[in-house]
Amino acid sequence: MPSTTAAQSRRQNPGSQSALRHRNQQRIVACLLNGPSTQAELARQTGLSTATVSNIVKTMVDGGLAATEPTTSSGRRALNVRLTGKGTVAVGVDFGRRHLRVVVASLGHRVLAEESVGLPLGHRAQEGIETAVALVDRLLAQSGLPRSAAVGAGVGIPGPIDRRTGTVAQGAILPEWVGINILQRLEDALKMPVFVDNDANLGALAEVTWGPHGRTDNLLFLKIGSGVGAGLIINGSPFYGNVGITGELGHATIHEHGLVCRCGNRGCLETVASTTTMLELLSRGEDPPRNAEDIVRNALAGDSATLRVVDDAGAAVGRALGNVANLINPEVIVVGGPLADLGDLLLDPIRRGLIRHAVPVVGESTRLTMSSLGDRAEALGATALVFQHTGIRAT
């Protein structure tokens, strides 16, 4: 699959000795994933000196990441090295407008540790990064894993990432992060390779790796939250376009004379269908909802105002999806985000809008479903991103 913004734009900075050692260890781990090897073979495959390989292997053995056993190679005594199964995990980090979720996952698609914490509205990058570092350290410790066990961290940002610069572009849900080279900041803080992508792109990746759509070549993942964004899998690969800014469905014009959007345009889908807009519309009631969870609870309880707002939002989303479906003809559209528990209450109006605005054969052949991964999709997709870009194949 094509590389993401982070992978393409990363500066090759040797960094500290500890960072260099970690990268060298990753090279050794990547070789050992193909099976046990002698230290001499590892030196040849990685290009590292035998002394460096020996020191790193000793550290891995001491940390329980690898095991050694005597063997013979070309008639000489040698030391065979193999992974113990604890040596390869990926960290997934999902930054939201008000939340942070971190997942530690193994190659076998098993979540070893996971935690979600709240972040203050309008938090700055440094605040979010410091919270993420502390949470990553805590979850690795809970799993009994040293930091060196993580081959990298995938990070989801709720906004576009400019592939040319690796920076958060204008239009992000976190305006305080715009213009920041989030990749470099995170690598400096986490002391491990980092791969950054838009959260909706990671949701799409999660659906074809962790979810039930592994054999789907053309999929659209739609995240409805504080913003509205889409991740695209086209012909089996994530689609990033020219500069990495794709799937900005939230800024498709729905009402030409509608409300002014934060992007500067008028009548965008986001001004009708985001959870932020829903909360504003419902704020006039006696007991207004405070978050997306309240919207879900009130809708499931049959509150008429909430049901109307959800239905209007779904119809608008369906209209926008109809236009996209006409263009790319996806096999599956997966709806995710904090409203996923609404189920058919949200899917039904989306489906009506899709059928109405898509070419009949496209609308009828496009499967619409709710994500089974819930609010974990973006963080799980972030772990898949790590394995993808470190050349490690999940099993």
TrEMBL record:
InterPro entries assigned: ArsR-like_HTH, ATPase_NBD, HTH_MarR-typ, ROK, ROK_cs, WH-like_DNA-bd_sf, WH_DNA-bd_sf
Biased composition (Polar residues): 1-19
UniProt record similarity statement: Belongs to the ROK (NagC/XylR) family.
Region (Disordered): 1-21
Pfam families, sorted: MarR_2 (PF12802), ROK (PF00480)
Protein name per its UniProtKB record: ROK family protein
Boundaries of every HTH marR-type domain copy: 32-77
Organism: Arthrobacter halodurans
Taxonomic superkingdom: Bacteria
